């Protein structure tokens, strides 16, 4: 993860450095161009001002006055006649100045023009303005400025840009450190959390999560850890329950088989022991069968074949199959189902659901009570309720009754032959057919399972 921090930091640095370099380059060039243009414009304007004064009063006193003014500035004025002969100069005329004057074009617009603007290679920048009196050129005003002033200005500007660039890089470096830490610290914490999860430690906790994609990822990891912890606990409980449920009948079978093998065992006792062995073998077979069903459902390795089913005859057929078991307990089954209701479901799988609920209701109800199957349609959904008048389920146990091997009263359930898998199978079969199942119960009043399709 430190490598990730470094990579993100380098990426941020290169991106911002490139953006800042391009911005600084264009800003630097724009400012330099603007400053040089201002100097050239100011020089040409100054020459035009002198030209206007001379056009208004072209005599020796005016010429001396202009020369005196320019001698005290950082610019130099040179006045020539129409043939290019120097008439006046505010300072010494250098060879470079003469060269620039000689290179001046013959035709110069009245507003003047820039003769030399290469401030980087030449000693002077220069402009020329023609003096026109009575529509005739009487001479030219040449303005010169040493380029050292511009170079000093640009040099100072470069120093400021360099200082600004260094400060920007330093500030950018600090920001990137905090930014990469802000981005990668949660990732580092999540990496540590996932490592602990991979080692089987699900008691992970992450700091206060941000409300962004990073926070969503952290929340997903927390949910994953919680789900894995629940899965581990359920697996351990499941394995313990399987071990117990298999051990009990196997212990009976092994124990009574050893007794039956004794030579001193009488015929009557032998029949009794063989009966117990057969009973425990049946329980074991039923348990293995239920586990097989659950395994196939977990792997989605079983098929649901739906077809239109006329509910009233269908449920009456199931009730008829279950009537003998109810007579043994002196119980009554009441079916309330309109004759015009149809549903698209898997009749074989759904029969298993109803029978499991009826078996569950019979086990935990007293004789001379009723089991009711009530079917109705509401909001285009089919509601099937299986209710008993048994002792009910405590409220604290209701959320867990669909868990595998979970039993409200373990001793009584084991005595009645239950392994705690029936309702788990019911829930998965209902959900496999696109439905839901809910349970409500009141102690000593009864329990109602409601299937919604």
UniProtKB/TrEMBL annotation:
<keyword id="KW-0547">Nucleotide-binding</keyword>
<dbReference type="Pfam" id="PF02518">
    <property type="entry name" value="HATPase_c"/>
</dbReference>
<dbReference type="InterPro" id="IPR004358">
    <property type="entry name" value="Sig_transdc_His_kin-like_C"/>
</dbReference>
<dbReference type="Pfam" id="PF00672">
    <property type="entry name" value="HAMP"/>
</dbReference>
<feature type="transmembrane region" description="Helical">
    <location>
        <begin position="6"/>
        <end position="27"/>
    </location>
</feature>
<keyword id="KW-0418">Kinase</keyword>
<feature type="domain" description="HAMP">
    <location>
        <begin position="181"/>
        <end position="233"/>
    </location>
</feature>
<dbReference type="InterPro" id="IPR003594">
    <property type="entry name" value="HATPase_dom"/>
</dbReference>
<feature type="transmembrane region" description="Helical">
    <location>
        <begin position="161"/>
        <end position="183"/>
    </location>
</feature>
<keyword id="KW-0902">Two-component regulatory system</keyword>
<dbReference type="InterPro" id="IPR003661">
    <property type="entry name" value="HisK_dim/P_dom"/>
</dbReference>
<dbReference type="GO" id="GO:0016301">
    <property type="term" value="F:kinase activity"/>
</dbReference>
<dbReference type="InterPro" id="IPR050398">
    <property type="entry name" value="HssS/ArlS-like"/>
</dbReference>
<keyword id="KW-0597">Phosphoprotein</keyword>
<feature type="domain" description="Histidine kinase">
    <location>
        <begin position="241"/>
        <end position="453"/>
    </location>
</feature>
<dbReference type="InterPro" id="IPR003660">
    <property type="entry name" value="HAMP_dom"/>
</dbReference>
<keyword id="KW-0808">Transferase</keyword>
<keyword id="KW-1133">Transmembrane helix</keyword>
<protein>
    <recommendedName>
        <fullName>histidine kinase</fullName>
        <ecNumber>2.7.13.3</ecNumber>
    </recommendedName>
</protein>
<dbReference type="Pfam" id="PF00512">
    <property type="entry name" value="HisKA"/>
</dbReference>
<keyword id="KW-0067">ATP-binding</keyword>
<keyword id="KW-1003">Cell membrane</keyword>
<dbReference type="InterPro" id="IPR005467">
    <property type="entry name" value="His_kinase_dom"/>
</dbReference>
<keyword id="KW-0812">Transmembrane</keyword>
<dbReference type="InterPro" id="IPR036890">
    <property type="entry name" value="HATPase_C_sf"/>
</dbReference>
<keyword id="KW-0472">Membrane</keyword>
<dbReference type="InterPro" id="IPR036097">
    <property type="entry name" value="HisK_dim/P_sf"/>
</dbReference>
């Amino acid at each position: 993860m430190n490598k990730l921090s470094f990579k993100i930091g380098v990426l941020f640095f290169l991106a911002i450095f490139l953006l800042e370099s391009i911005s600084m380059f264009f800003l630097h060039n724009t400012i330099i161009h603007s400053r040089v243009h201002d100097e050239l414009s100011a020089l040409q304007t100054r020459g035009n001002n002198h030209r206007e004064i001379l056009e208004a009063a072209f005599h020796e006193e005016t010429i001396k006055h202009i020369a005196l003014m320019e001698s005290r500035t950082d610019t130099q004025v040179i006045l020539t006649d129409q043939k290019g002969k120097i008439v006046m100069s505010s300072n010494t005329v250098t060879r470079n100045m003469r060269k620039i004057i000689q290179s001046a074009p013959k035709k110069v617009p009245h507003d003047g023009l820039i003769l030399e603007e290469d401030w980087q290679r030449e000693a002077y920048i220069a402009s020329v303005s023609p003096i026109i009196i009575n529509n005739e050129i009487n001479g030219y005003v040449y303005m010169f400025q040493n380029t050292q002033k511009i170079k000093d200005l640009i040099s100072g500007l470069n120093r400021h840009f360099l200082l600004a660039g260094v400060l920007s890089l330093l500030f950018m470096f600090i920001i990137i450190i905090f930014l990469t830490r802000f981005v990668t610290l949660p990732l580092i914490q999540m990496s540590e959390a996932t490592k602990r999860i991979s080692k089987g430690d699900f008691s992970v906790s992450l700091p206060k999560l941000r409300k962004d994609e990073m926070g969503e990822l952290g929340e997903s990891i927390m949910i994953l850890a919680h789900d894995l912890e629940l899965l581990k606990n359920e697996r351990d409980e499941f394995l313990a329950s399987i071990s117990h449920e298999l051990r009990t009948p196997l212990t009976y079978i092994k124990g009574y088989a050893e007794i039956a093998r004794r030579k001193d065992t009488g015929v009557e006792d032998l029949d009794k022991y063989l009966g117990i062995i057969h009973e425990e073998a049946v329980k074991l077979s039923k348990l293995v069968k239920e586990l097989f069903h659950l395994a196939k459902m977990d792997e989605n390795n079983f098929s649901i074949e739906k077809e239109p089913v006329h509910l009233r005859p269908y449920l009456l057929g199931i009730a008829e199959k279950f009537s003998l078991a109810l007579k043994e307990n002196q119980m009554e089954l009441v079916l309330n189902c309109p004759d015009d209701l149809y549903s698209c479901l898997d009749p074989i799988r759904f029969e298993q659901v109803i029978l499991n609920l009826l078996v569950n209701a019979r086990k935990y109800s007293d004789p001379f009570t009723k089991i009711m199957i009530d079917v109705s349609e509401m909001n285009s959904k089919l509601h099937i309720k299986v209710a008993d008048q048994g002792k009910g389920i405590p409220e604290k146990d209701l959320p867990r009754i669909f868990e595998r091997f979970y039993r409200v009263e373990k001793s009584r359930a084991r005595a009645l032959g239950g392994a705690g898998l029936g309702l788990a199978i019911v829930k998965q079969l209902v959900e496999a057919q696109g439905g839901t199942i809910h349970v409500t119960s009141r102690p000593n009043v009864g329990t109602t399972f409601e299937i919604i399709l």
